[in-house]
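Researcher: Here's the sequence for the chain we discussed earlier.
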Amino acid sequence: MQNLIFWKKYRKSFNASELGRLHSVFPFERVAKAAGLSEQRLGRRNIFSPSAKIALMVLKAYTGFSDRQLVEHLNGNIHYQMFRGIMINPSFPITNYKIAIAIRNEMVSRLDVESLQKVLATHWNPYLENLHVCMTDATCYESHTHFPTDMKLLWESLKWLYRHICKHCGEVGVRRPRNKYADVARSYLSYCKKRKRKVSRTRMLKRRMIRLLEKLLIQRDGIHREYGAALRYTQDYRKRLSIIRKALVQEKEMFEGRKVSDRIVSIDRHYVRPIVRGKETKSVEFGTSVCSRDS
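Model: Thanks. This is the structure I predict for it:
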């Protein structure tokens, strides 16, 4: 009887909370059905129904937690458990935080944005006002763009340049010049697999990548001087090459501890620049901005 009274109090506090109000207006069952989520078993216990999977992803976006933090809070926060529609035995908590990754991968493989938008629009129509007004975020998300790091930028430059050097040598029928690309590729793959990367290891690999990129540019320029008349370069090729040269100069300056203005953060989208502003979870975002105004 005492447990039932406590349970009713928890349920009442949950319904009065912001999380409870969000739960009351979100169509978990309909979204799960529209996404075609399965009842497949995740881990040792099958406690994730299709609607619970959707609720977990909504909860992750609401809290801004990492997968590990989300599972840890889920085990100890009864409101989070109510949001997902399950109760977790404290004696048998969820220990595998990778379950969140598995759910996210399943949703990505099945998600149809257009059908999902119809479900949400139909369900939320009674709650919406000013339906004639359209609002959009100021940031445009580009394709071929990911969170920028020096290592990713150098590796993309190396991979693109080495591929075209091999292509040029094949077109003119000469041997490829010798370099340490294969060794650096193996070292970079090993580096990416590390969960914790030492600063000394990062700096050492960055130095090798900068030197290799310099050598590849010298080898490419040598091929151009000797066989340039037999090779055809597109405008995109010339533009990408100039961006890589500029990125190399910037990376060398930053490696030596100097600040760089107008920093390149993407080889594919060279015009993308970081935007420093006050965000809830991140202090910096990057993307091209657009402004809309009523005409």
